[in-house]
Write a sequence for this structure.
């Protein structure tokens, strides 16, 4: 029998463990001692260098000033004070010597009384501009299905017509207009034009003060202007700011459309929309509409606001009052809202514009489009919001034919639509 097998330990025998090597670990005391010596040596070296550095610094401070190799030359060639006196004055200041007492105080001269600021010859003062126009400016408050909005308006005539921005009253279920004498009226929407961002309201009120409109086509860059409005809402209603015309005929693209506007540095904020931009003669030469936000880039933006020229206001407003819409605006005849990401995933719907309303007699109605359908694209443009749809329409004319993709009942359909004229 194999002797190795006879000498084999019983794994369950007391005091015997099969857990690996039983030789004691090697001692590392020598290595630790070496490292300790190295640390002590390095510490002593650092201390010695520190002492040497302190002594060297003290020696440098005791050297005379003329040993300094750096010299500075004054930008003023005609120096009336000798170099020695200049050096002495510097030492006196650093050593705490007293300076002339006249340098520690100064006199406040009497200021003249406040005077009217007349920006241009023949123009009105800023105070006169405000007094002439404040009663023609109104505060607008709108109740929306999902909250509220505020803006500003300008009285067009004593018959009760008021002009403001289209985006101020867009989607409003009710509109309230407050005058400067605190009277409040419920307003009806006469007409609105999203392309020009203008809308006309009507209130049944007496003793209205219409604004005087001027000709914006004669404006020049640098002309003085002022603005009145409700920045940040009615809490700051009637705020008056002033500035200049920064640019004219400035093309600004917003919401898929391009507007030709007046640029100004007069302070405009949310709530100023629909208010007047006024020239130095107290005439309204624009309707304030938008500004470049302060978070447009990392540097921030200030003093870039825009107003719709009065020549454009006149053309659009007259059509809105006479017929309730602006001629020549193409439309699909549908109203809708974006399909949210939640509904896309939960109901497995495509991204698009969920149609909530179809105008009777429109091109969409004629081809059988119904509420509940989803508009996916028009031409080569994907549609996911009303702005996308409007962007496509801004480049088209009444009578143009476009191909649209409609989603209904888990299937997609292609239809040809001939654009009709929008009636507002």
């Amino acid at each position: 029998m194999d002797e190795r097998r006879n000498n084999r330990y019983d794994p369950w025998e007391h005091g015997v463990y099969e857990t690996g090597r039983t030789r004691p670990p090697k001692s590392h005391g020598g290595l630790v001692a070496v490292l300790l010596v190295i640390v002590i040596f390095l510490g002593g070296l650092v201390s010695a260098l520190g002492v040497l550095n302190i002594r060297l610094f003290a020696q440098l401070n005791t050297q005379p000033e003329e040993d300094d190799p750096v010299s500075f030359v004054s930008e003023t060639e005609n120096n009336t004070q000798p170099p020695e006196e200049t050096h002495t004055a510097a030492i006196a200041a650093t050593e705490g010597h007293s300076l002339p007492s006249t340098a520690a105080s100064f006199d406040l001269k009497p200021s003249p009384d406040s005077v009217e600021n007349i920006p241009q010859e023949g123009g009105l003062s800023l105070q006169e501009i405000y007094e002439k126009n404040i009663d023609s400016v109104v505060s607008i408050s709108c109740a929306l299905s999902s909250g509220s909005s505020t803006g500003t308006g300008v009285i067009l005539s004593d018959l009760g017509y008021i002009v403001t921005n289209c985006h101020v009253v867009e989607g409003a279920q009710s509109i309230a207009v407050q005058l400067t004498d605190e009277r409040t009226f419920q307003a009806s929407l006469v007409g609105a034009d999203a392309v020009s961002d203008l809308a006309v309201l009507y209130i049944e009120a007496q003793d209205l003060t219409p604004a005087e409109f001027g000709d914006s086509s004669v404006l020049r860059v640098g002309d003085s202007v002022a603005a009145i409005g409700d920045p940040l809402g009615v809490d700051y209603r009637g705020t008056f700011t002033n500035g200049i015309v920064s640019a004219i005929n400035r093309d600004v693209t917003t919401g898929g459309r391009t507007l030709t506007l007046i640029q100004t540095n007069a302070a405009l904020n949310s709530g100023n929309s629909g208010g007047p931009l006024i020239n130095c003669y107290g005439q309204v030469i624009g309707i304030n509409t938008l500004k470049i936000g302060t978070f447009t880039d990392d540097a921030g933006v200030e003093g870039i606001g825009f107003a719709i020229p009065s020549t454009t206001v006149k053309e659009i407003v007259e059509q809105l009052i006479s017929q309730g819409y602006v001629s020549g605006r193409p439309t699909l005849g549908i109203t809708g809202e974006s399909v949210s990401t939640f509904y896309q995933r939960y109901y497995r719907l495509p991204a698009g514009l969920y149609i909530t309303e179809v105008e009777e007699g429109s091109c969409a109605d004629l081809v059988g489009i119904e509420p509940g359908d989803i508009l996916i694209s028009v031409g080569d443009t994907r549609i996911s919001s009303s702005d996308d749809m409007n962007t496509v329409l801004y480049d088209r004319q009444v009578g143009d034919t476009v191909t649209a993709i409609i989603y209904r009942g888990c299937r997609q359909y292609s239809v040809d639509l001939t654009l009709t004229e929008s009636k507002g």
User: Anything to note?
Assistant: Residues 30 and 36 are 10 Å apart (CA to CA). The two ends are 111 Å apart (CA to CA). The domain at 133-202 is CATH 2.40.10.10 (Thrombin, subunit H).
